[in-house]
Amino acid sequence: MNEQNVTRQTFDEVMVPLFAPASFVPERGQGSRVWDTQGRDYVDFAGGIAVTALGHAHPELLKVLNEQGAKLWHIGNGYTNEPVLRLAKRLEALTFADRAFFANSGAEANEAAFKLARRVAFERYGADKYEIVSFAQSFHGRTFFTVSVGGQPKYSEGFGPVPAGIVHLPYNDIDAARQAIGPKTCAVVVEPIQGEGGVIPADPAFLRALREACDQHGALLIFDEVQTGVGRTGHFYAYQDTGVTPDILTSAKSLGNGFPIGAMLTTNELAAHFKVGVHGTTYGGNPLASAIALKVVELISDPQLLAGVRSRSALLQEELARLHQRFGIFREVRGKGLLIGVELTDAFKGRAKDFVTAAGKHGLIMLMAGPDVLRFAPSLIIPLDDLREGLARLAKAIDEVVGATAESPAR
Hints:
Elements: H1 8-14, E1 26-30, E2 33-36, E3 41-44, H2 47-50, H3 59-69, H4 82-94, E4 99-103, H5 106-125, E5 131-135, H6 144-149, E6 166-169, H7 174-180, E7 185-190, E8 193-194, E9 200-201, H8 204-217, E10 220-224, E11 248-251, E12 262-266, H9 268-271, H10 287-300, H11 303-327, E13 330-336, E14 339-344, H12 352-361, E15 364-365, E16 367-368, E17 373-376, H13 384-407
Parallel strand pairs: 3-15, 5-6, 5-7, 7-10, 10-11
Antiparallel strand pairs: 1-2, 2-3, 4-12, 8-9, 11-12, 13-14, 14-17, 16-17
Binding site for pyridoxal 5'-phosphate: 106-107, 139, 224-227, 282
Binding site for N(2)-acetyl-L-ornithine: 142, 281
InterPro entries: Ac/SucOrn_transaminase_bac, AcOrn/SuccOrn_fam, Aminotrans_3, Aminotrans_3_PPA_site, Class-III_PLP-dep_AT, PyrdxlP-dep_Trfase, PyrdxlP-dep_Trfase_major, PyrdxlP-dep_Trfase_small
């Protein structure tokens, strides 16, 4: 067997079948363009699932990667390092937080947040205050704890008993939240915009009600900003545009622009409940990841870049409205910044995958957010020419799916 001769079929032969990748194999990227192993180019509207916020092969990130890579990659948690300390100071200067914990992913950041919330409640109030309130269709990661807290049972079923003390409520339902949050609640975790659940923004009044209920019952409010954070909504973190400040915030995805890193941010008072040995990580906060994330934060926190996210968002939504006028297949366009979801009409319900597949044929990398929603999460600095070209390719994909549907027998 020639180990170098690999194709898309090789995935089916050697990988655990947890994914169903596209038919093409991306090989390299530059900015908001990707080329596959056949040399074909694609406009990237997925951003590695809202990860490559500065696009592919950003020159300043490559410089940091090479410089830090030649100095120190990893040292272990028996030591600290300069890049992670600089990163913590920068994130704390930009947010409500006084303290940071670094991990390798959003799931690990959320795991740390949930453990901290339960630890705080245990030490302050005793063993009976342990309930975590979450919301239907939420997504908080794939560890067993985080997938159990997430509000999509399909991800937690079939693995045995889930951890006790997790309550799921309807998203944006203030009355349900007020009734459920009580003396046993240790934390409420919410996404400012549900990403995997369909790109559904939280009502500001809903977030305020959660804050009030948490304060009333001595519970902590956790904002999962794994997908919304680091500029994605046109603000450095989404909470900064809601009038609500959480007690704990989790971050990942765009934080490393593709290099694995996650963060949990919190206050001095709460961080004090995590003492040496209570929680940990081997790779989290390593100097290579931290140096890259520091440069990402420096670039994305620039007000001019964030203003560019908002202007690109307006253009994207205007063009999507034009596509709807042409094809009439969108029920709703929603989201904020460059996290936009397009819900399909009843006639195309359950067929988001068909549009994503057709987009790939026409040179566009797209995302879904459930079976009924197309999700847009391109680079925050996508050139306008690439944005328009991607939309032109999307129009061809829509035309193909709509045309094929019209020609086929009624479903």
